[in-house]
Amino acid sequence: MDKGMLIQELQTLIIQSLKLEDVMPADIDPAAPLFGSGLGLDSIDALELVVALEKKYGIRIPDEDVGKEAFASVDALAGYVLKNVT
Amino acid sequence: MSVRVALVTGGTKGIGKEIARSFSQQGMRVYMNFASDTTAAAAASGEIRAETFQADVSDQNQVSAMIDAIAQKEGRLDILVNNAGIIRDGLLMLMSLENWRRVMEVNLDSVYFCAKAALRPMVGSHWGRIVNIISPSALMGRAGQTNYAAAKGGVLSLTRSLAREVARYGITVNAVSPGVIATELTSGMEERLRREFLAMIPAGRFGTPEEVARAVSFLCSDEAGYITGEYFSVDGGLT
């Protein structure tokens, strides 16, 4: 899977699973932290995203240590998905 | 009356240190337990006329050894304040078993270990005071603190049940629930979180460790002998 494509896919997935209104995929900076920043998402929103990612890519985000690494940014998330996708 | 002997777990920092100071100022023989921070322990023993005692309260052998040593040296142990605690915050869906267990061990198992060992000298002398420090998280819940809230809620239920077991021996068992208290812990708090907390507190300010120590001191006094199985909130109206 191409990382650039995956980043676009993740931007869309984030918007859909978290039902973000008035946000376009390109508005989500791949390098910016996903939570606690511009998008106004908090850590409880992350749970929804965990479930969506696990369902779509068959990966596991078992605990907060992994979660912190995976959700550092969309770019980091793409890296995490690529490394763990089954 | 002979001089009372008190043990405060986690007694060299923050709220525990103020409780120890308050006991010491009342003329008691005071032991300040600490887990690992020898620098803070040295500083506390420089400030307060009290002994320090290193022991991991989540380890039953270390707790027994500590309390036996105190009871043997002093010939008694009258007051136990279970103040030591840790937090490992995180949302339950992503909480590691390690963070769940460690919070249970340090906050809940420790109360069982300390009370079990301390009750022997108290039952023997037909006088005792146990005060367990709990938290608003136990009373109202807090997202991100399921482990801590469960442990502290367990401590509150233990408090009520143990109070019934030992009331006949002149021993009272109560809990004190400090709200947001200004300590080293809260001074490093982010500004956003600080404002969020202040907005929830009717008193409009954080509490001081001295204010918590006063409530604990009262519950440990002779005057409070008919109060048992209760909890006091010292939280500016938060809960």
Describe this structure in words.
The complex is a heterodimer of chains A (86) and B (239). With 86 residues, chain A is mainly alpha-helical. Chain A has a single domain (3-84), classed as Orthogonal Bundle (Non-ribosomal Peptide Synthetase Peptidyl Carrier Protein, Chain A). Chain A contains 4 helices and no strands. In chain A, α1 crosses α4. Chain B has 239 residues and is an alpha/beta fold. Chain B has helices at 14-25, 38-47, 60-74, 97-125, 136-140, 146-166, 184-187, 191-200, 209-219; strands at 5-8, 29-34, 51-54, 79-82, 128-133, 171-178, 231-234. Chain B is globular and about 50 Å long. The chains are: A mainly alpha (86), B alpha/beta (239).
How is this structure best summarized?
The complex is a heterodimer of chains A (86) and B (239). Chain A is mainly alpha-helical and 86 residues long.
